[in-house]
Design a protein that fits this description.
Number of helices: 11
Catalytic activity: L-homoserine + ATP = O-phospho-L-homoserine + ADP + H(+)
CATH topology of the largest domain: Ribosomal Protein S5, domain 2
Number of domains: 2
Protein name: Homoserine kinase
Bound molecules: adenosine-5'-diphosphate, the ligand N[C@@H](CCOP(=O)(O)O)C(=O)O
GO molecular function, one term: homoserine kinase activity
CATH class of the largest domain: Alpha Beta
Number of strands: 11
Keywords: Amino-acid biosynthesis, ATP-binding, Cytoplasm, Kinase, Nucleotide-binding, Threonine biosynthesis, Transferase
Pathway: Amino-acid biosynthesis; L-threonine biosynthesis; L-threonine from L-aspartate: step 4/5
Largest sheet: 7 strands, mixed
Distance between the termini: 11 Å
CATH architecture of the largest domain: 2-Layer Sandwich
Helix content: 25-40%
Length: about 325
């Protein structure tokens, strides 16, 4: 069997929405999934039956599909379809550190990992912007795939008659604002968490979110932690999703009591995100994990940094 150079794609987790920025803003975190694609020649027996062989390791590995319906492989196929080439048979190794269906962008890592891996194997026919557009189309919203691909905190604005394509803005994030995530041991799929949202909102709610989003962006840029509790308030998704997250109130209260600037749902949940001063990070981590424990739910809490690199790919020497 001849095996070509493996391509390893490392994709960061994300925390999307950041309160009032529903479906628009997200930040990459220093927590990663790895996707390694190895193109195989078509002269081996198993390859005549199956186009892909998938191995998954790391946390919750047994929950990830290992057949053709795997999301990273579907994204891989999408890119080949887009460029009009027949996808080669591949071996895909996935190493997981991002927990599934917790609001930390695991699906975004799979989509970005599959697209970038395919683009590399195909000799980079698509630009990063074209890959990003495919990723947004596959995920259905930009706020996790864009920071996963580009790193940092990113605002995505849909194109219109003037701006033909998505406009992506880098949102400055002050180094004295630390993200703490508290991840409970139950899943909440993004699909389920979107089903509870109303299709229409009132003018008052729209104005509320516009004002709070402006405050959020200024607070993140300037390090005005005292603005964050207010700035993270939202009327578009959080009021409807809280009921899907047992322990929400208790964990939020505990984090604020321990000194967090503010608390919000990470992505579609159930992970809760606290923004904190670096000196308070440890106390907030402990308080959030304990508060969840007290309502009978085990949880892992930890602080991260904002990943500024985005998705990285590396080609290993041919075996
Ligand atoms: N590494 C992966 N490989 C393949 N599929 C994945 C991977 N990570 C996540 N997924 C798919 O995405 C689903 C979770 O997506 P979603 O509900 O949007 O949650 P999240 O908030 O983690 O993105 C998983 O149930 C799985 O089907
Ligand atoms: N804006 C989306 C974000 C989903 O992010 P994820 O990390 O939960 O996939 C939403 O809130 O539905």
């Amino acid at each position: 069997m001849s095996i070509h150079s493996p391509v390893t794609v490392t994709v960061p987790a994300t925390t999307a929405n950041l309160g009032p920025g529903f479906d628009c803003i997200g930040a990459a975190l220093t927590l990663y999934n790895k996707f390694t694609f190895t193109r195989l020649s078509s002269d081996t027996p198993w390859e005549t039956e199956r186009a892909v062989r998938i191995r998954v390791s790391g946390i919750e590995a047994n929950q990830v599909k290992t057949d053709e319906t795997n999301l990273a492989y579907q994204a891989f196929l999408k890119l080949y379809n887009q460029i009009g080439h027949t996808p080669p048979p591949v071996q895909l190794k996935i190493d997981l550190d991002v927990p599934l269906a917790r609001g930390l962008g695991s699906s975004a890592t799979a989509i970005v990992g599959g697209l970038v891996g395919a683009n590399q194997l195909a000799g980079e026919p698509l630009s990063q912007t074209e890959v990003m557009q495919l990723a947004i189309a596959l995920e259905g919203h930009p706020d996790n795939v864009v920071p996963a691909l580009l790193g940092g905190c990113r605002l995505a604005v849909r194109g219109d008659a003037v701006l033909k394509e998505w406009e992506i803005c880098d949102i400055p994030w002050h180094d004295q604002i630390v993200p703490v995530v508290a991840i409970p041991n139950f899943e909440l799929s993004t699909q389920e968490a979107r089903q509870v949202l109303p299709n229409q909102v009132s003018r008052a709610d729209a104005i509320f979110n516009i004002a709070h989003f402006g405050l959020l962006v200024r607070a993140l840029a300037t390090g005005r932690g005292d603005w964050l509790q207010t700035a993270l308030q939202d009327t578009l998704h959080q009021p409807y999703r809280q009921a899907l997250i047992p322990g929400y109130e208790a964990v939020q209260t505990a984090a604020l009591k321990a000194g967090a600037y503010g608390v919000t749902i990470s992505g579609a949940g159930p992970t809760l995100l606290a923004l904190v001063d670096p000196m308070q990070a440890e106390a907030v981590v402990t308080a959030m994990a304990e508060a969840w424990q007290e309502v009978g739910i085990s949880a892992i809490a930890r602080s991260h940094s904002i990943d500024t690199q985005g998705t990285q790919s590396a080609i290993a020497p041919a075996i």
